[in-house]
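Run folding on both entries below.
>entry_1
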Amino acid sequence: MKTENKRRRSLLLLERQQLKADIERTRYRIDSVRNHFEQEIDPTLIDCYIYELNAAQLRYQFLLRRFKDLEGVR
């Protein structure tokens, strides 16, 4: 039983670390898309950046919720 608990805790720790890395990458993506959006003058590309920004923000929210859900698991 102890070995199973240790294994489960190790898997949770690994998943939390992966989520942290995904959250950082997504935050970087949001900043990058926002920069491109602010520099763009072509209306079509502006629309593209708006969709990309919305998608990245939704992903960021999902990852944060998932991370918070895992914090409660022991």
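>entry_2
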Amino acid sequence: MSLSSPVAGLEIGTSRTVIAIGEPHGDGSIEITAVGAIPSSGVRKSQIIEMTQARYSIESVLKRLEEQFGYTIGHASLAVSGPQVRTTMLNTQWQLERGFVHDDDIIEINARAEETNLPPERTQLELQPIAYGLDDMGAIASPKGMNGNLLKLRSICIHGATQRINDARAAANAAKLEITQPCFAGTCAANAVLTQQNKREGCLSIDLGGGSTTYTAWINGQLAAAGVLGVGGDHLNNDIHTAFSISIKQAEQLKTAASSAVISEEDASQRVPVPAPMPGFKAASISRRALNTVVNARMQELFTIIRSKLDEEDLLHHLDAGIVITGGGAALSRVDELASSVFGTRVRIGTLVPEIQGLAKIVGDDPRETAAYATISGLLLKAAAEESRPSFMDSVTGMFKGIFGK
């Protein structure tokens, strides 16, 4: 039985616009009770480029939720993605007056870390602590009582373009939907499929969207890196369209029904029928190997870029729990196999954590289908926990307690 009012989330993606509703429970779980989705209009790379079309998309989903599930909602959290999202590492320092770390020193450095001083054109989406340091020491679990002169705190700030977020707010407001909070889509997707144990062991979450790809790396239970690449499923469609001189619609059908991220020996002897552009036209065919070569090249490039970024930050060898893939791109055949070969570790398609319930009843229990709803599911979980969510200062104070069992 639900103990709180329903919460709602809005995701304005390149491929589709989604609104979901969930009913929180007292044990921290949430029951997803309604999902509405339609192909997006007026959106490119997860950013609105035509306000009227984006508004109509939101209105259409709201109408579907009311007709199909009986829900009328007036506010929702917003998942923010696309190349507009950036990550800044913050290094805060505080000179110790007593020669050792006192409670007051921890409070002071926490407060200073919250003063990110982002310019007006940037909006903070998330601020997460990573680790304490003291003089020349790093990765300290709890510095209280330790002797030293300079206390340090390393944290990560994720922020989006204020104007792009305001565009989403305006489109939603025009559809009579108020945005209560913008949230980073990458951490929403990760929280939907990664357990606390996964995060402690070290795990990388990759969400393959239509217009962009988000990733988050978790080490020792904390967010260690995050980013957005402006490459997604639409780029695959365009690659196939260009390579074989077919329409974008035909390219997408080929990608979905016949392509693979891995090139196999048997591909050379097989041909794939190209969907006829319209009834009455003769269907053509192409080499399966040629199709898979195009798909493999794009996906390998994408994964290699992410690997390089993790290598730069010396994080790749900490991923003991492997890699989890979510988003619409999780449905691409053998995409997990390709990712495993690029990263050199085990890879799986994301399954929702036990705290998120009910989605399979609405969209089906195929893991690759539910993985496509990871972002919106994690957004609902975040919205449900928002009232009891600890502040940044509380997060810093207790960030290592779960790791060391203290």
